[in-house]
Amino acid sequence: MVIYDITKEIFSTKAYPGDPVPEKKSWLSMEKGDVCNLTSLTVGSHSGTHIDAPKHFIANGKSVAEMPLEKCVGICQVVSHSGKLEGEFWKNKVCEITDKLLIRGNASLDVKAAETIVACGIHLVGVEAPTVGDSSCQQQVHKILLENEVVILENLCLDGIQEGQYFLAAQPLKMQGVDGSPVRALLMDKDAFLNLDYFKEK
After folding, report:
1. Given CA atoms 198, 172, 181, 83 in this order, what sign does their dihedral have?
2. Tens digits of per-residue pLDDT, 16-29?
3. Which one of 56, 81, 123, 142 is the catalytic residue?
4. Fewer Cβ within 10 Å of end Cβ, the chain: N or C?
């Protein structure tokens, strides 16, 4: 079964302006005579490929430790689109197809798009950009999605991924009280994953 890694490498990915820059520092080193290697990590809760929890923009929203994991794992639809997500996009590609949506390309989510995502019953929306939402309405887009507990998956790398249905795994780290989390986002061929014979052979 082929696994597609759609995660950006965390230390080489440019941090969002104003966010902490990820850093790593040797804490223990076998080269220096220590018994093992151990690394100290400094990352922001929204470094690299990451998930936004409701707490990111909703004062009493759920943290990443409280998010339902079934929203982060399961069958998803990958679509390609650049520009605004207008009526024909939803009519032809999304509604009644999936509850997890990954958008390949430079897609622009405005308030209307966020409202449509909620109305369509989508549980997760993923984008390649470092943040969801058009620059003129980022706060509003985040609030609409997160107050309805739509999982936001940002900073994906979907190069070479064809449109279609896949099995997605993008779980956040279990961190109580935290508003977001880096993830290792993976796609797997849906039919291969759901083929029980594959697992019996293993």
Report:
1. positive
2. 999 999 999 999 99
3. 56
4. C
